[in-house]
Known about the structure:
alpha+beta
Amino acid sequence: MTGEFERRHGFPPGTNEVRPASRDDQTAARALAQADLIPADLVTIYDSIGDATWADVGNGYFLDSASDVLMRLQEHGPVDAGVDQMVAIGSNGGGLSYVVGPDGSVHRTRTASLDEPELDKVADDLRQFLELLEKSLTGFMADGDPGSL
Length: 149
């Protein structure tokens, strides 16, 4: 597979993994839960998953660790989406970020900036978002198409 990937894309494959949560990740997830800005489902995910890196699927898909999300929240505050305060949880590797609202809906920024972002809803909840990520990975493995997430 490595040879096929490099032949198709012109560079060797990078790291693609879902890292299990460490104690530090779980502690950060509990701190995020106390901020009342993230849905309970995300805290549950962060109890098991440290982060996800699919660097070779299109431009890449990245689900940040709870520690990174907490640090960004502490340093820059929540993402102001008008009515809602949202939290940045990852990116697509092309400069666009994924943010989650308190209701669990996931949105993607239209530009690289989190200052006054324009957002497009990509999933009603985290389950649907993770299913879309899985579909992107599966499609990329099958035919090289990373989808439009």
